[in-house]
Specification:
Number of strands: 0
Number of helices: 6
Order of helices and strands: HHHHHH
Largest sheet: none
Helix content: over 70%
Strand content: under 5%
Length: 161
């Protein structure tokens, strides 16, 4: 009987410790996901800030009013190219996060669906982005899975299987 109480207390302590460890792990996972979503949102805000600071960047979108009168100087073209590459970099990082880094839950699925729509819309509305992405130099600097994903979007748009 005397040995029973220390063992019982040890078992209860172990159970409480395991429960607290699980809760801490779960909280950490949720916090990391929330922080990642905030980081991804900040990247979109940065893109928006660039558009406000340099409205001529709107000309990468085929149907935007600025597209027909855009500056074709080498400096302006380089700025548009860098802006498009910034999108590619953000898209690759976000796609990697949602498809390879985490095991998604319902909330993560909703965020990924919105990002997937944003990525598809970007390539649908910017022939500059499609052309730049199809360049061999561009395809070499991104992961094979991201390249396959974007090429699939571009091919669906062009009617190529």
């Amino acid at each position: 009987m005397i040995l029973f109480f220390p063992i019982l207390i040890s078992v209860i302590s172990l159970g409480v410790s395991l429960y607290v460890a699980y809760r801490a792990w779960r909280f950490n996972e949720l916090s990391k996901r929330r922080a990642s979503r905030e980081s991804h949102a900040k990247m979109v805000f940065d893109i928006g800030r660039m558009l406000v600071d340099s409205p001529e960047l709107w000309s990468i979108y085929d149907t935007h009013a600025l597209a027909k009168d855009r500056d074709e100087s080498p400096l302006a073209a380089a700025k548009r190219e860098a802006f498009i590459h910034q999108h590619f970099n953000v898209f690759e990082m976000v796609r990697d996060y949602y498809t390879n880094v985490i095991h998604r839950d319902r909330v993560d699925d909703e965020y990924w669906q919105s990002w997937d729509l944003y990525i598809r819309e970007f390539f649908t509305t910017s022939s500059d982005a499609r052309m730049l992405f199809k360049e061999p130099e561009t395809q070499e600097i991104y992961s094979k899975t991201f390249v396959a994903y974007v090429n699939q979007i571009i091919n669906i748009m062009s009617g190529t299987p």
